[in-house]
Amino acid sequence: MFQEFYSLRLQENCDVDNLLTPEFNAEQVNLRSPARAVVTDFSNVDPVTVNETMAVDDALERMKNQHVRMLFVTTAAGKFTGVITARDISGSKVILYMNNHGVSRPEVQVGHIMINKEQLHSLTYDQVQHCRIGDIMLTLKNSGDQHLLVVDETELGIKRVRGIISASDISRKLKLSFEVMYEAKSFAEIEKIVTQGAKIPL
Fold it and tell me: What's this model's pTM, rounded to 2 decimal places?
């Protein structure tokens, strides 16, 4: 049964002192880096989804379990209809829905307070392939969005969500908040902050 396999030689670990962490393995990025470096690409990772009929507090628990702050909302047939964020559930949206419809919190479903796909903005995958992180940051600043969908099209002409870009992911990768970027007076100043961790002069 095992004739086609062979046993590997095991190693001693007495001289191994370090653990690799994502911090050291991560691609170093800056504002001129390709935008694809900040895309969560669903050809590599599965989108975290939730059914539109799920109770909002169950959806929040799903976020916590999956270590995400946003879920893609789908119908029973698996069709994409929108997104829901932790802020949507923890903020005033649920209370407003309860008051307006005379229901209790357990009766509030994801579909009642989600952000419909028609309210979301997107970029094409082709656009993302040909732009830089700085272009994305400026786009987010001008639109006021926290997330941008990335959409592609199959050979049969079927449009689909290929990925997502998150303002918080960009801030984490650049170690730079959007607030700091907006306060900077020049691109050179932003670059200095990203590369050297310098502070903005008052």
Answer: 0.77
